[in-house]
Amino acid sequence: MNTLDWIAKWADYTPDKVAVTSYDTHEQYTYEAIHHYANHLINKLIALNIQEGDRVAILAEHGPYYLVLFSACQRMGVILTPLNYRLSNAEINDLITDCQPSLLIYSKSQQHKIEADTINIPQFSVNKLKTLYKIDTPAKCNLQKEIKENNPLFLFYTSGTTGTPKGVLYTNKMLFWNSLNTSMQLGITFKDSTINTLPPYHTSGWNIFVTPLLHKGAHIGMLEKFDPDKVLCLLELNKTTLFMALPTMLLMMQRSPIFSEVKLEHLKYIISGGEMVNYELVSYWKNEKNIDIRPGYGLTEAGPSITSLHHTMTLLKPNSIGKPNFYLSIKIIDDSGKEVGIDEVGELCIQGDIITPGYWNNSVATRDKIKNGWLHTGDLACYDNEGYLYLKGRKDDMYISGGENIYPQEVELCIEKIEGIKKALVLPVKDEKWGSCGIAFVTKSNPDLTEENIRQSLKGNLADYKHPKYIFILDEIPLTSLGKVSRKKLYEYYTSLISKS
């Protein structure tokens, strides 16, 4: 038995255990069914002359069929490449041109985004993919490949919020150690279950809970897109034990009318990250539902299970991302490469078997990011005197104004303490006098709050040189397809305002 073929192992050990349920189509696959369906698909891929190292791209919403693709690609050494269906047609076709897949699979709702005249590769629909699965006739597959730990299994394109998306290679080795880190931190067993609402084109849609639960022979529920009312109902009805949600999603859930009607007694933890998980959010869920939200940190290039804040510390260490997980090393360095001291800010670097081997077709970016086995994340962080980690923003976002280092997250936290402010986001821009300055985008719950009120509230709480030069009050902060703040759209908005002035 191949030690990395978790689906085959559970198909042998608990064949009738339901591995995945779609709450959109009400399909269910057992571990045995996924195992057999993957063999049918392997035979089809072999017939298409798809070889080890080839890419199979898919443009479709998350669903159970992805697990069949995952299993088949893993056994063949093929790289599964989920494409971001929320991109424009041109952007999607740029990704296809970059990864050069040997096969493109699409859902009916996404078919119109594929420019058939420019893509001369085999293609078929998700519906055709499903016809390959014959549950009553287990496939005979003569494939005798050993799953190699260094083989890439996924190719994830980064969101591109600050530039052109880069393809990150994700290997079987990363898969194994990430799963081990996740299950050790959370005590995952075959009795656990989750509902995945995160997209398939991002590592979080696979490697926060989906693949660790596959490793443990547990149950995975799937929704194509996040709906706060529906998620709350499903968490309650299915007695779900683990859930992953971005802070934005948690806010939507707690504002839902369903929130007061559900108990969620079986939910052990909610994992959150992607942006800062603030104290108010953590304490609200603890007080209202007695549910622990566990902040953590990860990124496409590593893990994504890198740090975790233990549930007993969530209210004692507000805004912390916790401590490093078991099988990795972390250091924080200054610009000269020297490790910083307690409470000193520097770049967070990671080392271990959860690090990507590099970027697809981009050796320059790989050399810039991975040096002597250490991944330089570009994230700024610091330790406190007990070893707890705190993010301080992106290295690219830290700016020097009048010779002083300014960290946007510090300014954001100060603004968000003002009564009537919902959200703040600070970005650096060039300034003729000071070199750089900050611009703040805020949303508010108090309609009478003005820019002048905000500036007055900052006095005495924040050094004058850290005050944003411009403050823009918005109805909503724009988000990426994953639910993170879209800095790209905010810069575009700022540029449009400046050009008109």
UniProtKB/TrEMBL annotation:
UniProt KW Nucleus keyword: no
Chain ranges of the AMP-dependent synthetase/ligase domain: 8-360
Domain AMP-binding enzyme C-terminal positions: 410-484
GO function terms (MF aspect): ligase activity
Keywords linked to the UniProt accession: Ligase
Family listed: Belongs to the ATP-dependent AMP-binding enzyme family.
SUPFAM superfamilies noted in UniProt: Acetyl-CoA synthetase-like
The name this protein goes by in its record: Acyl--CoA ligase
Listed transmembrane segments: none
Any single Pfam family the record assigns to this protein: AMP-binding
Record-linked InterPro entries: AMP-bd_C, AMP-bd_C_sf, AMP-binding_CS, AMP-dep_synth/lig_dom, ANL_N_sf
